[in-house]
Every structure is written in structure tokens, then in C-alpha cells.
Amino acid sequence: MKEKNLTVIEHIDEIRKRLMVIVVFFVIAVIGSFFIAKPIIKFLQSEAGYEEFHAFNVVDPIALYLKVIIFIAVVIISPVIMYQFWSFISPGLHETERKVTLSYIPFAFILLLVGIAFSYFVLVPFVMNFMKELSAELGITQTVGINEYFAFLFQILIPFGVIFQLPIVLLFLSRLGILDPVKLVKIRKVAYFVLFVIAAFITPPDIMSHLLVTVPLFLLYELSIIICRVGYRKFLKAEEKRKIEEIKAEQQRQIDEVMGNLEK
């Protein structure tokens, strides 16, 4: 492993460089998102199931347009953000750890997209149907604001995109030896309760919608435990191999030292 002993100032400068790279890619992604934001907005409107949307504020259209552009841009550059984070911590990792953890970035991006897709194609329709049925039962005519509808979408899409990163995050921590999968098993009940509460906040108060969210979250946690075990076993093997190499290196150093003394 190539050691780097950086001062606080050097660390801050390194962070600044990483952030500058992210900002440059973000600006490029924002420019590109200008061209695809409008068709995406129209597609989401057509799939919502409402005849028309309303703007309750003069600046709602431009505010919505900018929010969608920023959302698309962040999703696009998420691999860049992950890579910059990896690059910042990689000098403190061993060569094997650097190669392995770098390979996690594509899978993290895929899981982000899967989380967003799951929430939009599975969860959102259930929530929308529940709200429409409840409005009909209460005799309420829904007047849907375009800004409010997209805020509702972001409220569901973003958390699930983040939550679906759980397996990769735990695998990353276990591969570095920071997280022991035994701890995940011990706190399973607490984790289930937290996930249950998260699902309750996201979904409407009906059992089917709640189960639709809670069960995948529980399965995601169990999958994370399995993946974490694999990563931790690899960490232990790497540590054992590293110790053996260190012992051999020390023995070779002692032999070289003895031979050097004999030659004298």
C-alpha cells in the first residue's frame, strides 16, 4: 500500500479538488439535462392519470423545470461523485482493497436506478390509486398542482434510490473490516423496526401499500447481511495473507541482516 501522510491543509486541498471535479461534471450534466427535462416532464405528466395539472404560483413552471434538471443531473453524475469519494479515501487502502472497492461503483449506480424504478413503477401507482379512491369516497375533487405532484414524486423516488444503496455500503464497510456482519444480525430487530417506520412514513395507511414497501426493505436488509458476510470473509483472508507476507518479509530481512554480518 502506498502511504500518504497528509496534513490538514493538504486534506482540505484534496477535498477542494474533488469538489471542483464534481462541480464541473454537474454543470455539464445540467446543460445536457436541459434538452431531456421537458420530454421527461411531459412523460411523467401523461403517466400520472390526471387530465390536467395546475400551477398555483407564477414561478411554478420554471421552478419545476429547474428541479427536474437538477435531479437528472445528480443521477447522471452519481458515478462521478462515488468515484471522487473513492479517490479521496483510496490512498489509505491496500492495493487489493482499492481494486475491489472501485468495482463497487457500477453496481451502486445500478442499484440507484433500480431503487428509483421500483418506487416509480411499483410504489407510486399504489399511492396514487389509494389517494384517488379516498378522494372519491370523501367526495373531494382533486385539483393537482404540478409543483406539488413532482414534489411528491421526489419525496418517494429519492429516498428509495438512497435506501437501495444499503447492500453496497455495507459490503464496502465489511470489505474494509469496519463492519462485522455479526453486528447486523444482532441489530436485526432494531433495523426492521426502523425500516418499518420508514415504510409507514412513505406509504399511505393501507396494509397492501405498507407491505409492498416493507417486505422489499426487509429482503434488502437480509440481502445486505449475506453480501456483508462475503465481504467480511474476503477481508479476513486478505488480512491473513497480509500478515503472512509481513512475517516472510521480516524473516527475509533478518536473513539478509545475518548474511551481511557474516560477510563482514
Structural class: mainly alpha
Work out the helicity level. Answer: over 70%
Tell how many strands the DSSP assignment holds: 0
Number of helices: 9
Mean pLDDT: 81
Report the order of strands and helices.
HHHHHHHHH
Cα gyration radius (Å)? 25 Å
Give me the oligomer status.
single chain
Instruction: Report strand %.
Output: under 5%
Largest sheet: none
Q: Note the overall shape.
A: elongated
Straight-line distance between termini: 34 Å
Q: Which residues form runs of ≥5 with pLDDT under 50?
A: none
Please give a quick description of this structure:
This protein has nine helices and no strands.
Report on the structure:
This protein is mostly helical and 264 residues long. Helices cover 83% and strands 0% of the residues. It has 9 helices and no strands. α1 (8-47) packs across α2 and α2 (60-89) runs antiparallel to α4. The longest helix is centred in the C-terminal third of the chain and has 57 residues, at 207-263. It is elongated and about 100 Å long. The mean pLDDT is 81.
Record keyword descriptors for this entry.
264 residues; mainly alpha; 0% strand
Detail the topology: elements first, then pairings.
Blueprint: H1 8-47, H2 60-89, H3 95-102, H4 104-138, H5 146-163, H6 166-175, H7 181-186, H8 188-202, H9 207-263
